[in-house]
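U., I forgot to send this yesterday:
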Amino acid sequence: MSTTQVEPAAALAELERTKPDKVTIVLLSGDMDRAMAAFIIATGAAAMGMEVTMFFTFWGLNVIRKEGASTTARDWLRRMFGWLNKGGAHRLPLSRFHFWGLGTKMMHKVMRDHRMPGIPELMQTAQDLGVRFIACTTTMGLMGISKETLIDGVDQLAGVTTYLAEAKQGSVNLFI
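Result:
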């Protein structure tokens, strides 16, 4: 059995040669490590001159929610979702080894020690590089999330058809 080895410099050179014009990333997860991967890819692609769109849906909407923003839902079930599912880029848990917040705090310390930017800094960098943020309206309605509870700089509120139109033009489409 053989494995395929990818040489990073060759892969980067191939990407620059073929230069995909458009990248779309669906961020479904509200986990810190997955959100970080999504923003690192988005900022890397944008820095290479690609047009990047990030579509935030389901738990991924927590990444672009204002910290401590409450839900505007009127029914008790969606209010409960909002109460249990607090947003904010600073509050995201790890997908593994969260340990009631201890693992996440340890990860934040390691990142600070190695001068690794956190999610808020990566988000700002993405916005500075022109990465478009689209919030999924279907999920917003389902979870009782309003436009006012999202961070500034969300470019558009839209549904799946908008994402599909973006993805159809994309050379790289990722689902995280």
